[in-house]
């Protein structure tokens, strides 16, 4: 087999991965993929060598991958198994390892394919679960990772999405991890006696969350601000009914100032009114506002709460939501349609007669926010 | 076009449903036709009816509105939108509306109509709410 290349391609599907764009948020999937594959490789090696209790020294390091390209077709990171590293760490085993890596990749994809038809293993080791908890944890509901050159039971390429992750992990364990971006209200600040203190933040989605913080930051930033709005970006451990068990990591937490908080509340109240409209609300010529549009609107509000003071929010007859606002001498519209897609357009109202023709995005995701920020300024 | 409106100063009224108003300002999409309207926007002519009477007829015919805004024939024309008389007859359910007219957006693709609507809305808001006067809805 000499230096034959052994490559694995993961195809990220979703609008934020268009044009070979791979958000840094999901880069942690790559070592997680390696860890999962390595966990299966250990099982495989031990089953082939039943007289051994442990894998040989250097085994883990020999399951090493290099990211050699991000190809087009959404974003397709290409990972090459590093044969030289295997040779260096486990001399003489390279060909056997190559077969084990192949078999382990197949076992990873079979595990995921089976989860798609509600077939689960009786148990998985903590090593497997730890890797699974990282792999795909940044995926949003409409996104997936396809394992190229595989074929599942349904004849299609095997893929991992948030549904499969959640069900797979919670079948072998009580909880799974997922990312939460949203807003909450500061309910309490507990100053540190020693070490770190913590705050309580209530959220509409997950109830009250306890967050440990650096004591300096807690005192300078949060103390004395009970009732203030807070912007959150958290890695959460959730159970199979999405009840929070613990906060794994605080990616970002920021106090929203009182004025912005009040504006955010006004926008949310307006959204709640719009959400309550029933079919035919406009003299019979309209449909109720879709859940996808409301979810997209919530996400849009939480992305840039500092803009809430400028927004005027309207329903559309087709079940969507229209935001209108002025910024930087322009009058903009952000229109969320009834499947959650977003369109932005606008006219210059100061210093010229420019126009932004409507530009459409699949969702309120990174690509849209980049366009939004470039127009509105951040 | 025989029925075309030619007095550029004539204000044409748009009735605004309460759900399309926020803090006294209408949604821009009230200033372009909906999909079902086939590129024709309904308006009422100020040459024939006051804003108050147009509103009274509109709600009297069973529709809901809380405000009247207006755009002139010339303002429509500056966006390459022609306006024409379109009086509607009395039916079993609605009273006649001799002041009814239509603004044609047919020269513009639906996507282009969105920014046109924004421009017309700004002109209408600048002119101010025409009915009820002095009350922000």
Mean pLDDT of chain B equals 95
Q: What's the helical proportion of residues of chain A?
A: 25-40%
The H/E string of chain B reads EEEEHEHEEH
Low-confidence runs of at least 5 consecutive residues of chain A: none
Physical arrangement of strands within the biggest beta sheet of chain B? 5-1-4-7-6
Structural Rg of chain A? 24 Å
Sequence of strands across the biggest β-sheet of chain A: 2-3-1-4-5
Structural class of chain A: alpha+beta
Q: In angstroms, what is the radius of gyration of chain B?
A: 14 Å
Largest sheet geometry of chain B: 5 strands, antiparallel
Low-pLDDT sequence parts of chain B = none
Q: Helix and strand layout, with pairings?
A:
The complex is a heterodimer of chains A (378) and B (137).
Chain A: E1 7-13, H1 29-48, H2 59-62, E2 65-72, E3 75-81, H3 83-89, H4 94-115, H5 126-134, E4 144-147, E5 158-161, H6 162-172, E6 175-190, E7 197-203, E8 207-213, H7 215-222, E9 229-239, E10 244-256, H8 258-275, H9 291-303, E11 312-315, E12 321-327, E13 330-336, E14 342-348, E15 355-361, H10 366-376
Antiparallel strand pairs in A: 1-3, 1-4, 2-3, 4-5, 6-7, 6-9, 7-8, 9-10, 11-12, 12-13, 13-14, 14-15
Chain B: E1 11-16, E2 21-22, E3 25-26, E4 40-45, H1 51-60, E5 67-72, H2 73-78, E6 82-85, E7 100-104, H3 110-127
Antiparallel strand pairs in B: 1-4, 1-5, 2-3, 4-7, 6-7
Concise synopsis of the structure shown:
Chain A is of the alpha+beta class and 378 residues long.
Can you put this structure into words, describing what you see?
- The complex is a heterodimer of chains A (378) and B (137).
- Chain A is an alpha+beta fold and 378 residues long.
- Chain A is 33% helix and 31% strand.
- In chain A, β9 and β10 form a beta hairpin.
- The mean pLDDT of chain A is 88.
- The interface between A and B is medium-sized, with 27 and 22 residues.
């Amino acid at each position: 087999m000499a230096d034959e290349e052994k490559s694995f391609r993961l195809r990220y599907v979703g609008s934020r991965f268009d044009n070979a764009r791979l958000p840094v948020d999901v880069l942690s999937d790559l070592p997680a993929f390696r860890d999962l594959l390595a966990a299966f490789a250990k099982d495989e090696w031990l089953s082939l060598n039943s007289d051994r209790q442990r894998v040989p020294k250097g085994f883990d390091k020999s399951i090493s991958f290099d990211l050699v390209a991000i190809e087009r077709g959404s974003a397709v990171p290409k990972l090459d198994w590093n044969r030289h590293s295997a040779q260096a760490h486990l001399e003489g085993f390279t060909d056997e390892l190559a077969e084990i890596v192949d078999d382990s990749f197949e076992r990873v994809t079979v595990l995921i394919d089976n989860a798609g038809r509600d077939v689960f293993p009786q148990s998985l080791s903590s090593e497997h679960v730890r890797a699974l908890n990282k792999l795909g944890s940044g995926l949003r509901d409409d996104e997936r990772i396809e394992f190229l050159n595989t074929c599942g039971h349904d004849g299609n390429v095997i893929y991992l999405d948030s549904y499969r992750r959640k069900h797979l992990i919670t079948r072998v364990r009580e909880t799974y991890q997922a990312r939460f971006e949203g807003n909450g209200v500061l309910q309490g600040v507990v100053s540190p006696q020693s070490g770190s203190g913590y705050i309580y933040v209530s959220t509409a989605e997950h109830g009250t969350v306890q967050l440990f913080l650096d004591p300096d930051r807690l005192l300078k930033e949060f103390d004395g601000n009970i009732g203030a709005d807070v912007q959150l970006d958290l890695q959460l451990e959730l159970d199979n009914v999405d009840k929070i068990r613990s906060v794994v990591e605080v990616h970002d937490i920021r106090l929203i100032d009182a004025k912005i908080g009040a504006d955010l509340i006004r926008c949310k109240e307006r959204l709640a009114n719009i959400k309550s409209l029933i079919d035919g609300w406009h003299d019979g010529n309209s449909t109720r506002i879709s859940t996808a549009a409301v979810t997209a609107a919530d996400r849009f509000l939480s992305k840039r709460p500092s803009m809430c003071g400028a927004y005027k929010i309207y329903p559309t007859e087709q079940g969507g939501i229209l935001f209108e606002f002025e910024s930087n001498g322009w009058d903009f519209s952000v229109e969320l349609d009834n499947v959650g897609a977003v369109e932005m357009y606008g006219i210059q109202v100061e210093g010229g007669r420019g126009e932004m023709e409507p530009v459409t995005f699949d969702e309120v995701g990174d690509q849209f926010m980049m366009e939004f920020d470039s127009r509105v300024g951040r | 076009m025989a029925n075309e409106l030619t007095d550029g100063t004539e204000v044409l009224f748009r009735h605004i449903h309460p759900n399309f108003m926020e803090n006294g300002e209408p949604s821009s999409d009230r200033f372009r036709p909906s999909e079902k309207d086939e590129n024709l926007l309904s308006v009422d002519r100020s040459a024939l009816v006051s804003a108050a009477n147009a509103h009274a007829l509109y709600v009297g015919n069973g529709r809901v509105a809380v405000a009247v805004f207006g755009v002139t024939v010339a303002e429509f024309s500056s966006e390459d939108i022609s306006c024409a008389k379109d009086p509607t007859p009395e039916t079993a359910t609605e009273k006649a509306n001799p002041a009814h007219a239509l603004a044609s957006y047919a020269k513009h693709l639906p996507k282009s109509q969105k920014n046109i609507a924004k421009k017309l809305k700004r002109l209408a808001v600048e002119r101010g709410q025409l009915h009820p006067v002095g009350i922000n809805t």
